[in-house]
Amino acid sequence: GIQVEQSPPDLILQEGANSTLRCNFSDSVNNLQWFHQNPWGQLINLFYIPSGTKQNGRLSATTVATERYSLLYISSSQTTDSGVYFCAVEATGGFKTIFGAGTRLFVKA
Amino acid sequence: EAGVTQFPSHSVIEKGQTVTLRCDPISGHDNLYWYRRVMGKEIKFLLHFVKESKQDESGMPNNRFLAERTGGTYSTLKVQPAELEDSGVYFCASSQEDWARWTGDTQYFGPGTRLTVL
To answer: Which residues contact A36 (CB under 8 A, 6 or more apart)?
Structure first.
């Protein structure tokens, strides 16, 4: 089945730095979603982005479906950006959705 | 160690019927979450258990949905009566207690239950 890999697994940043999180997938997908896990463990939707680029404040995401990857950019990071970021992909041809293992981000003050 | 399991993998029911989905978290995980993806839309949070208590059920769409986690182990999500718009994939995830932004565990996701309401 489709494989989803996120990198890096862990990331430590100084406040104000920029970062790029990556999500690779092994097959064609219908949709891709980025989430941020809040302090209570709930997934908060960041972007629903099967292709193209979207921006929301300091966050932006780009999915290049033909090359099977997506990038999440965090600019001018803040301590509140800390947490785990997941991507999830919906495989073509069905309802199968696969989650990546997540990237744990820690932003130091 | 077994991961998060969900049962059934696929359920097809008629409108008005009742369906119960089950999630078995990883042993020892106190946090259990339900999410769903309605066809063509993004995945959304439904609710969060800490042990047997509902920590947050703000994402439950309406009172046709009832989630339980008796004994703080497995959880069930009942839809009664099911409507056409309930079709989608329902995911469960679990994580360890005392989750913290940095030092805590990430969530582990089950394979999902695909629900089709005809």
So the answer is: A43, A44, A46, A81, A83, A84, A85
